[in-house]
Each structure stands twice: as structure tokens, then as C-alpha cells.
Amino acid sequence: MNITARHAGTLVEARGITVSRGGNVILASVDVTVGAGEIVTLIGPNGAGKTTVVRVMLGLLKPDRGSVWRRDGLAIGYMPQHIHIDSTLPLTVGRFLTLGAKCRRGEAEARAALDEVGAAAVMETPVQAASGGEFRRILLARALLRDPDMLVLDEPCQGIDVNGQAELYRLITRIRDRRRCGVLMVSHDLHLVMADTDKVVCLNHHVCCAGHPESVTNDPAYIALFGKQVASTIAVYHHEHDHDHAADGHVVPLGRGAVPDHDRGQAHDPQGEHNAHG
Q1: Looking at the predicted structure, is the pLDDT value of residue 236 above 50?
Q2: Which of 48, 209, 228, 244 is the most exposed place for a label (fewest CB within 10 A)?
Q3: In terms of DSSP H, where are the helices of the chain?
């Protein structure tokens, strides 16, 4: 399934993807492209086909119609939405990170990945004892151990409070900036994700609308899908903080000489409250 990539920086390009199961159309003529250094976010209601798009783009599912092009030798780091670990399994975070034939690394590499995501302190902690925010960062660290050209993140902020969600999205942006990798992300956090993504693809079995976050939130198809009230509460603004958040969500003062990196756009409720829409 090869097509000609439109740009030299393209990592994955899907065109006209159609998938049906049991007589039901899951995807109809869906186009999605992810380029190097670009964050692309798939949004849409439950059952809209977001996970199916990801599976097709990764080559895990063959579409009924359409084509997918992937750059030769493309390395992908995947962060799942859910993963179950037996509560009785004696498994430290460090050991968890080095499991798996395709992502096996030594202790030094595992510690460096945890440090990159702000969770170095949990290296020797039983993985079952990690908080929700810490565990999401652990999964992100595991994806980074593959030295990915593209990160695929399925609901990366699942189970985290609003402050933790905002910080994790900013962390993902910083990783993109540092590594210049592409990011394909699935999210329901409409109020938060809009500011930390380059392109939004709004799905409901087909592409309702796509483009820059600000243009998507003003698109009639987006408003029809999510409602005028939800769409009207999303605004992009820039702000600066004198603090950061640890992996568990606690506020951490910035060190002397540190530069706040929260001055990125962030979704904001006009009434002054941050919100998440699940």
C-alpha cells in the first residue's frame, strides 16, 4: 500500500481510508497525514473511528479501500490508552521499562527516559504504586526508548486531573520540539488539547473538518458535532507561570535561572476556569 508522499518531511500519509465491519461503516474516505515535527490530534465522539484510523496508519489493520504510505524504516513509539499489570507481580518501574524484545534497554537508558518525562524519582518504585500521572509518564518514557521518529499517543492524559493534563500536553510539545519527532495523538480533552497541537482532525466516521485548531473550533461541522456551548468555551491564549508540575501533579517552583515554558497557547474557559471534556 504505497502512495507518493506529498512532502519530504512526511512520516505517514493515509488517503481515502474506508473500513466496514458487519455492514457498518467505521471509516469513510478518511485522509490523515503526519509530518516530522508536527503534532496531529484526532478528536471525535466515542465510536467515531479514531482508534481504527491509528491501527490502519500503523499497518495493524488493512482497510477495505484507500492507501497508506509510511516512510521507510520509520520508528514508532506507542503509548496505549490502557494497560493491565497484575497487582501481585513484583515489577519495578525500571524493570517494566526494559521488558520487551523490541524496546529492551539498560538501566541507564531507562533512567534517562524517565528523567526526560520528569519521573526519574520512580525508577525503583513498584509500577503498581505509581500515581495516575506518574504512570502516564512511565508509558511515555517507554515509548521514547524506541528512539521514535513518530510518537502515537492514545488518550495520553487518561485518568489525570486537569492540571496534570495541561502539563502532560506541554511535556509532549517539549519532547516534539527537542526530538523533532512527529506525534499522532487521540484525545477527548477538547479544552486542553487545542493549544498544544498543530493540526486537528475531527472525526465522526468521516473527516468532519481538519486544520489549525482555531479554524476547526469555528467550523460549523465541529460546532454541530460537539455543540455550540462546548465550542464557545475554547479560546487560545498565552500565559506565563513561575512554577511547574511534578509527575504526581504537585506544584514545583522553577529553579533560579529557569525559563518558564508554560507561555504556550492553552485552552481556556472565558470564565477563567480550566476545563476538560471527557
Answers
A1: no
A2: 228
A3: 50-57, 93-98, 107-116, 132-144, 162-179, 190-193, 213-217, 220-226, 228-232
Cell numbers given for 76: 514508532
CB 122 within 8 A of CB 247: yes
Beta bridge partner(s), residue 27: 19
Helix, coil or strand: residue 100? coil
Bridge-based pairing of strands 182-186 and 207-211 is unpaired
Cα–Cα distance measured from residue 161 to residue 169, given in angstroms and rounded to the nearest whole number: 12
The answer to whether position 235 is within a domain reads yes
> In this structure, are residues 215 and 58 in contact, taking their beta carbons and an 8 Å threshold?
no
Domain boundary among 130, 147, 164: 147
Report in angstroms the alpha-carbon separations of 79 from 48, 113, 125, 154, 156: 20, 14, 20, 6, 7
Q: Are residues 59 and 158 in the same domain?
A: yes
Pairwise CA distance, residues 265 & 239, whole Å: 7
Query: What torsion, rounded to 10 degrees, do the Cα atoms 277, 201, 133, 265 define?
Result: -80
Q: What is the pLDDT of residues 259-272, one digit of tens each?
A: 333 333 333 333 33
CA 275, CA 255: separation in Å to the nearest integer? Answer: 28
Residue 269 identity (one-letter amino acid)? D
Task: Please tell me the distance from the alpha carbon of residue 186 to that of residue 53, in angstroms, as a whole number.
Answer: 10
Q: What is the pTM of this model?
A: 0.77
Tens of pLDDT, residue by residue over 77-105, are 999 988 888 888 889 999 999 886 455 56
